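Sequence in, structure out. Go.
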Amino acid sequence: MPGVKRGRGESMSGKDTSSSPYMPMFHVFRNELDEHHDRRERVIKASRDITALSKKMIFSLQRLHQFDQKLLEHVTAENAGREKDIAQLFESISEDLYGINGPRYQRQISGAIQEFIEAVSFAHYIRHQTLITPAEASGSIAGGAQLTADDYILGIFDLVGEMMRFAITHMATSGSLPGQTDSGRSADGADQVKAVTVKRDIVMDLRSLRAYFESLNTGGATGNSWLGKEVEKKMEVMKSCVDKVENAVYGMIIRGRERPKGWVPSLRDDMAGAASEAVESY
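Output:
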């Protein structure tokens, strides 16, 4: 006996299911799922755009090569338009992140927030040579996005990499280590107070950050927290960045005494060195 094709509204038993009391409930579930996927897609799209704009801010800051306030003002004006666009993107998804939806879509927006914190903290460091506070970082985020402690910590982890690139470029172009001189006061006894001058450089700041990061306890009671896993991934990269700067400083101090300031190897020297290495290897 040939099969009979059922109508769209008929069930296996051939009865019409449009009058089922459960159908309106499932229609509500379907609409809620559609709204959820639409919100999630909007957050993901905004997250990608925020990440891209934040990277462009960092690239502009890396062109400074030194702590120069005049050049920084020029780059800040250039990045002002990007910051405005980022604020508009955060505002566009403020309703999607309101209330219980904030934690629900935290994973989708977390990467963009970390990248933005990396950008604003790098700009803050170049201007003041200090670490941006959580309150200052949170104030730079518009809309309903919340800066969690996890995103702040992971964003500062990424800051170390930008500080490493800034330090290496500065040493390669100027032959010196970026830093500044701070004037403080040191008390000797109860009555005598004398002024002291402390030379701060980027290596000291990187070492301080490394010490703070190594003292973090993010594993929790079970050692399986999400932050603990992310910190474990970024910890080795952070240590490697600090080591690279330290090795560059050692090379600059030791080899710099053997060469005049501003010395750059010529192409002829590079070709001769490559030829000698090829002969020795042969």
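Check: Confidence is low (pLDDT under 50) at residues 181-197, 274-282. The longest helix spans residues 23-62.
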